[in-house]
Amino acid sequence: MHMKKMACVAAAALILTASGIAASSAQALTFTGPHSFEATCDGARLIHSGFIIDRDNTGDGYEHYSIEVTDGAGNVLFSADATQELGYTYGPEDIVFPYLAAPQSNPLTVTVASSAGNGLPEQTLYENVSQCVDLPLVELPGNEGAPGATPAAPTPPRAIETGIH
Question: What is the largest CA-CA distance in the chain?
Fold first, then answer.
């Protein structure tokens, strides 16, 4: 596996437990210290001191998880899927994942999820919403009438293939 893919896998795995939300009997990913993942205007930045893969959602001793960054118009700016063996341990990292396209509007949302499977439901492990100063804010449920908010575009979200799986 080349370094770029390993970095994406590591980043995605780290983010999964960033919110501290645990599945009923199986926690997805366990961080060994402080961690953060945020969408910036230029890319998504993941900082962590380490984590361990520990939720078998495949039935084969692996955890499958995904990370996605979207802008206010629903455009996918970054996306990665990974499957790692239980017990796999990542060391400290500070990684920036560049976007494949520039964000068009706020808010920018990072979501990390552990897939459903092996009797476990899909689990959103981390979600962070941020904004770029120079972008307009799309009106979404919960921010109607916010200063600078404009109605959401009627176009459907479009995915940008990263080639990372």
Answer: 49
Put simply, whether the predicted model's pTM sits higher than 0.85 gets the answer no
Q: Are 82 and 9 in contact (CB under 8 A)?
A: yes
- What is the C-alpha to C-alpha distance for residues 28 and 71, in angstroms, rounded to an integer? 26
> Roughly how many angstroms between the first and final C-alpha of the chain, as a whole number?
11
Beta bridge partners of 137: 106, 149
101-143: per-residue pLDDT in tens? Answer: 999 999 999 998 999 999 999 998 889 999 999 999 987 665 5
Q: What is the DSSP string of 4-19?
A: HHHHHHHHHHHHTTTT
User: What is each CA distance from 93 to 50, 64, 126, 131, in whole angstroms?
Assistant: 7, 20, 17, 24
Contact 23, 55 (CB under 8 A): yes
Conformational region of residue 119, where left means phi above 0, alpha means psi within -120 to 50, and beta covers everything else:
left
CB 61 within 8 A of CB 85: yes
How big is the chain by its Cα radius of gyration, in Å? 16
CB atoms within 10 A of CB 39: 27
- pLDDT tens-digit profile of 142-157? 555 554 544 444 333 3
Enumerate domains of the chain plus CATH numbers: 3-151 (2.60.40)
